[in-house]
Amino acid sequence: MTTGSTHDLAGRVTDEVDRLTDRLVASLVDAIAIPSVNPRYPGQEYDKVVGAEGDVSALLADLYTEAGADVGKVTVERGRDNACGVIHGAGGGRSLLLNGHVDVVPSGRLDRWRGDPFRAQVTDDTVIGRGATDMKGGLVAAAYAALALRRAGVRLAGDLVLQAVVGEEVGDHEAGTTAVLEAGYGADAAIVCEPSGRAGSLPAVVPVTPGLLWFSISLEGRTAHSGLRGMTIHPTLEGEHLGVNTIDKFWLIYHALRGLEDEWARHNRHPLFPPGYFNLLPGVLRANPSGILVPFFLADELTVEYCVYHHPDRSNEEVMAEIEDRVANACRNDPWLREHPPVFEWKLLWPPYTLPRDSALEAAVLDAHTIASGGQAPVRTGFMGVCDLTWMDRKGIGGLVYGPGVGYTAHAENEYVEIAQLAQSAKTYAMTAINWCGLAED
Ligand SMILES: [Zn+2]
């Protein structure tokens, strides 16, 4: 390193980020222009979409090279390259990993966007486009943090590892984060650069993520002519041997799970999440007479799909058992559902993650954020969604989320990131690297 006090060093690094911010924004615009929709996202045609993720990784790889990293590619599926860079420390320090995902979700309804989601609009203080918040902003900020360190003449003691990975948006970590860790691009601790900010505020420090479950419930009914409905629903008349409408039956299950959701809001609290955050969302409902979408028959088919965010102190298995139990209870008093129980399919199980209290990494990030912001301590909060910290934890690497972006615009139309958050994140990453990895002695 060049000599000087830590204070001078912080000043040099943050000045470099300020000088680089226009370029950082330009790189983000370039990254957004590559429509790297996850090819395994529901509704996508894999062969048409695959390849763009690898192009974003290549863009990041060039920035890693410019920052002085040894760059490698890890590829599990063709066209879906992960890019990794290692800036080797002089030795004797802890290593730090900065991770981000290159894939994005589809753009949603184009008529609700103010412009083309893949042609970013840059205003005085924001960049608008698909992936601006989730999370090309964080990816690019991490690369520019490394570049600022190099330009400021900082030589770290420990390694700084940069990862641009595919697959996160569908939990396909086997092709992304897990693959690069297995290829040897690990570190002593990690920052996942996912968005942790709100509108008009700096990024928060996020040491905890909820568990995520995706499941479907299917019900079987008995179809009949619509004119027979009265006979089937009033027990004084013919009853269910004539017909059973699955849509009526579903409300028993709906109310049972809605009740569970209320219980969670009242009794299942966590200090870093707002009360009521943990929830069960019935997000997809399909019900109809077999193969025909007209209301002239009783619906004999029904599938509902739920997305669940649960308390990080509870295991997926515990919550799955609770949900199945509630549904079974709701069905117990219904003669039809007792004989024709709902069928569960568990589609995605994403375990929660909590960084242990008093983590040295968190202390390093808190300090870095405070320096980078000119004295403002960061907010601590839980993560709105799930992220690759879960899979890093499986490989023995602890970490936290910190990154630019306005969480509620992720996956939404007119997704945007604030430029002040991009610069703040790059500064915090660079100062964390100094705090955590230490400086080379010479
Ligand atoms: Zn994300």
What topology does this entry show?
Layout (H helix, E strand, L loop, with lengths): L5 H27 L13 H4 L2 H15 L3 E6 L5 E7 L8 E6 L19 E2 L3 E3 L3 H20 L8 E6 L11 H6 L6 E4 L12 E5 L1 E10 L8 H5 L12 H22 L11 E10 L12 E10 L5 H17 L2 H5 L3 E8 L2 E2 L5 H13 L7 E3 L6 H6 L3 E4 L14 E3 H19 L5
Parallel strand pairs: 3-6, 3-7, 7-15, 8-14
Antiparallel strand pairs: 1-2, 2-6, 4-5, 5-16, 8-13, 9-11, 9-12, 10-11
Helix pairs in contact: 1-4, 1-12, 3-4, 4-12, 7-8, 10-12
The structure holds zinc ion.
Provide a descriptive summary of the structure in words.
With 442 residues, the chain is of the alpha/beta class. It has two domains: 6-209 and 353-437, Aminopeptidase (3-Layer(aba) Sandwich); 211-350, Alpha-Beta Plaits, CATH 3.30.70. It contains twelve helices and 16 strands. The protein has helices spanning 6-32, 46-49, 52-66, 132-151, 177-182, 229-233, 246-267, 316-332, 335-339, 360-372, 389-394, 419-437, and strands spanning 70-75, 81-87, 96-101, 121-122, 126-128, 160-165, 189-192, 205-209, 211-220, 279-288, 301-310, 343-350, 353-354, 380-382, 398-401, 416-418. The strands form four sheets. It has a six-stranded mixed beta sheet. Strands 10-11-9-12 form a four-stranded antiparallel beta sheet, with helices on one face. Helix 3 packs parallel to helix 4 (132-151) and helix 10 crosses helix 12 (419-437). The protein is elongated and about 90 Å long. It starts with 5 loop residues before the first helix and ends in a 5-residue tail after the last helix. 48% of the residues are buried. The model has no long low-confidence stretch (mean pLDDT 95). The structure holds zinc ion.
